[in-house]
Write a structure and sequence with these properties.
- The protein starts with a strand and ends with a helix.
- It has helices spanning about 15-30, 85-110, and strands at about 5-10, 40-45, 50, 55, 55-65, 65-75.
- The protein has two helices and six strands.
- Helix 1 packs parallel to helix 2 (about 85-110).
- It is an alpha+beta fold.
- A four-stranded mixed beta sheet has the order 1-2-5-6, covered by helices on one side. The chain has a two-stranded antiparallel ribbon with strand order 3-4.
């Protein structure tokens, strides 16, 4: 099942490569058995640090039946968010964990 995805860029130039990278991660979410209805991804570079350069922030809003899962990965966590691709990887890894937790809670509530 293809998940509808909406990608927003704030203070970051949109590229086809980043679009494809994000869509690949969204497709990976759909293969993990979750019933994700939609996905909204925001990639932004809020400010430039004097010593470390630009950090990226990624926010993912996933709509699942009966709930919404929000993942917000901030650049203040350290140097690992200086690369947009690394920030995207980190955010989607966290989203995958949150989807798994949600699926576990949903299964437990049905018993």
């Amino acid at each position: 099942m293809t998940i509808p995805v909406h990608i927003v860029y704030r203070d970051v130039e949109r590229t086809d490569a980043i679009d494809a990278y994000i869509r690949k991660h969204v497709d990976k979410l759909s293969t993990h058995g979750s019933r994700t209805l939609s996905c909204h991804v925001a990639l932004e570079a809020p400010h430039r640090h004097k010593q470390h350069g630009r950090h990226y922030r990624v926010r993912i809003d996933l709509t699942v039946p009966g709930s919404e899962i929000i993942v917000d990965r901030n650049p203040d966590a350290g140097r690992e968010h200086e690369d947009a691709y690394a920030a995207i990887d980190d955010a989607f890894a966290h989203a995958l964990r949150r989807l798994g937790e949600h699926a576990g809670r949903t299964r437990d509530s049905r018993r």
